[in-house]
Amino acid sequence: MTSHALTAPFSHRQDPGPLLRLRRQWALFAALGALFLFSGALFLAPRFWPATPQAPLLWFLTAAAALIWQMFYLWHHLAENHREGEEAILPVLGAGNALTLFRGFGFAAVAGFVLSPKPEGLWLWVPAAIYLLAVCADYADGWMARKTDHCTALGKKLDMELDSLGMAVATALAVQYGQLPLWYLTLAAAPYLWRVLVWMREHHSGRAVELPESNARRLLAGTQMGFIATVLFPLFQPPVTTAAAVAFGLPYGLMFVRDGFLMFGKIAPDSPLHPSAPRPPRFVPAAGFVARWATVVLGALTLEALFGPALRGDLSMGIFAGRGVALAWLLGGVGGLAVLLIAAGWLERTSAFLLLLIVSAFSLSRNVGAAEIALIASAIAVMHFGSGPLSFVSPEDRFLSGRAGLEEEEARRAEEEFLRHSGLRT
Fold first, then answer.
1. Angle, CA 110 vertex, CA 243 and CA 44 arms, to 5°
2. SS3 for 21?
3. Cα 415 from chain centroid?
4. pLDDT, average across residues 260-273
5. Beta-bridge partner residues of 393
6. Could you tell me what percentage of the chain is helix, strand and coil, using 3-state DSSP and rounding each to the nearest 5?
């Protein structure tokens, strides 16, 4: 989370040639976005709501509002299309920014569903699939920008702005579909509330607010987008999604509280809570260690409750009654392997996510008990904190450090910095 203070759209000292070319590219992307939404309303929306003729128009107007905001933001920051430390405006937006804008088109499409009737059948999967595709592309646009040497201040701001917009509309849609509780909207609005606080602080102090870099901030934002993308799929429903909302939302909310104290100077630079602290607080790896073994114990108990009867050949009990023992052996084995990997500290984040999916999906066909809810919370804790200093093989850490496209040595240093500040290594 960095300062979102608005800057002048362009400087009179700059050569108008590159800026004029950027404006022409802006017009091209605005036209492509409008064509994309118009095509969606014309060819796809009627299939979503065959009994509601006005629904396609409502979808188009809502999606168009999200697109207009994106184009306004891009226009306002075109003059910042320069590399960090340089002043010369680059005359092209670049492949990374282009992909970011295409992601924005997807977010606009998701926004169209927020005020529209809920689709039925397989069409209900479409909004979730669009958002998931846009979230996955978030990894590629940074990679493309670095590979083409086109990392700009505009790209950084545009990526953050569209991530906030996408998370806000996807969260609102999940709340509308009953997947998340109403209070989760406060977390979706947090980035925008943060801007108001930053503006008030800057207006009061007369200087810009700059927070220190934080890999934990990037980690929590990434897991938040992944959670929203997952919970949108109709595979899951309360109370599983409600329990997961608490486990995912609490660390994300605390991050904003911590950054608020940082902004107002209430956290000293030598405090263990400061992102730049040379050594992380001990409770972070300890929390990961406790969460790992809590997940192992609860995972074993829950897998026994879910799969035990069928694995023992009793097809009259459990969630696999009448469905065959082969499926029970397959999914029970995958879940058991995930528990073992978490216990060993190998691929613990991926294993926790896999265990979370299995338990959440199959909790739909039975009453969810305290063990399942506790397991879901513990698995999410492992996804947040890892397994502490006893983690052995965690290639996910490099992915979560968000430095796609760096050279091997740079990626290694970025990973070590990420692990040191997040408490996953001592």
1. 130
2. helix
3. 19
4. 76
5. 346
6. 70, 0, 30
